[in-house]
Amino acid sequence: MHYAFAGMSNMSKDAFCIVCGDSSKLSSNRLCESCFRKRVTLSKVPKTIQQFRCPKCESYEIRGRWSKMNQESLADLRIRDNLELDERAEDVNVGFALQIIDDRTNRIHLDVSGMIDNFFFEDSFEVLLQTSNAICTPCTRKDGAYFEAIVQLRSAGRKLSEKELKELRSTLDEMLDGMEADPMFFITKEGIVTGGWDLQLGSKSMARNWARILTKKFGGTVKETSTVVGMRDGIEITRLTVSYRKPAYDVGDVVKLNNDLWMIDSWQKDGPIIRRLKFFHRTGASWRDMEKARIICSRSEQFIVDILNRDSSAAEVMTPHDYTMATVALPYDDDKNLTKLRIGFIEDIWVALPGFVNEVDI
């Protein structure tokens, strides 16, 4: 904080200390250096600072929340929260050294310097940082089987396979690993149920964040419902249920819709983007429209094969089932430089599918 004060040039030659009468260098409120120092303190800090640590998760209580932090950063934070400076102080420097005594007690050697009214001040302190045990809010809630949200993983019109459940569930671990740790982002309970998988989560925002990731990666729909489970201080306490419904089809699957063959190209909020097989035509379809779609050839039933011969309109390939030669019409987006095709067995014949063959396919 910067403090405006009158310099010595603004005082008369006859100025003197209003306490002792000394006419040497005076402060802005007309005190000599000796009298000024008797009445002014640069800094104050408690001799002992008490902090709380959860013995279960090793988190520390910090400004009403619980977080994990190393000893140096924690000592720096405690100094910032407890050090009091004169409001007129300028050019303040704070330095400290941490001495670890035992698991519950540290000693902080603190040095503070700064200027007040052009007088240099310097303070030194020894502060004991003492740690007591206290169970944090997240651990208390975990032990009490607390949860704020339920996430239900389902699929449209069918049971989710074990592989699908594993893929869906893995995205939650990826989300938690890729974000800043939040003590309320915990799983209270999870397990298989009829048709899918249910999870009880410690945070509503955790459930919503995960639902957004699921729809972005796998498509599908999300439905939210809230249930009142109690009252606290006159405010309703609610529990959120997030029901995620995965489509019965995946990106790359060939489906039949309105008597035409389409490939699932990508996902959007209101439904998939689909690509026509016969010629270039991409369009959006709603989830309601896709209820009428029937899977003709899933991505898992498609194969990458070598092109043995080709001309301008067709290519010869070896079929993966019986290793016989077959001629397939080239897709509309054929790249003559490619030596492979993606094919699927559709309506009793082998069909070359649009979409570039890349390293991921191979």
Question: Layout of helices and strands, plus pairs?
Answer:
Blueprint (H helix, E strand, L loop, with lengths): L32 H7 L3 E2 L3 E6 L6 E3 L2 E3 L3 H12 L1 E2 L4 E11 L4 E12 L2 E15 L3 H7 L5 E7 L6 H16 L9 E7 L2 E6 L2 H15 L2 E12 L2 E12 L7 E4 L2 E9 L2 E6 L5 E3 L2 H4 L3 E4 L5 E4 L2 E2 L3 E5 L6 E5 L10 E7 L2 E4 L10
Parallel strand pairs: 2-8, 9-13
Antiparallel strand pairs: 1-5, 3-4, 6-7, 7-8, 9-11, 10-11, 12-13, 14-15, 14-18, 15-16, 16-17, 19-23, 20-21, 21-22, 23-24
Helix pairs in contact: 4-5
Question: What characteristics describe this protein?
Answer:
single chain, 362 residues, alpha+beta, 5-stranded mixed sheet, 5-stranded antiparallel sheet, 6 helices, 17% helix, 42% strand, disordered N terminus, Nonsense-mediated mRNA decay protein 3 (NMD3)
Strand order of the largest sheet: 10-11-9-13-12
Structural class: alpha+beta
Mean pLDDT across all amino acids: 87
Low-confidence stretches: 1-12
Helical residues, percent:
10-25%
How many structural domains are formed by the residues? 4
Q: Compute the gyration radius: what is it?
A: 35 Å
Short description:
This protein is α+β, with helices and mostly antiparallel strands.
Please characterize this protein's 3D structure.
- There is one protein chain.
- The protein has four domains: 1-39, no CATH class; 44-144, no CATH class; 145-246, no CATH class; 302-362, Beta Barrel (OB fold (Dihydrolipoamide Acetyltransferase, E2P)).
- The chain is 17% helix and 42% strand.
- Helix 4 (162-177) packs across helix 5.
- Mean pLDDT is 87; it is low at 1-12.
- The protein is elongated.
- With 362 residues, it is of the alpha+beta class.
- The chain has helices at residues 33-39, 71-82, 137-143, 162-177, 204-218, 287-290; strands at residues 43-44, 48-53, 60-62, 65-67, 84-85, 90-100, 105-116, 119-133, 149-155, 187-193, 196-201, 221-232, 235-246, 254-257, 260-268, 271-276, 282-284, 294-297, 303-306, 309-310, 314-318, 325-329, 340-346, 349-352.
- It has six helices and 24 strands.
- This is Nonsense-mediated mRNA decay protein 3 (NMD3).
- Residues 17-244 form the Nmd3 N-terminal domain.
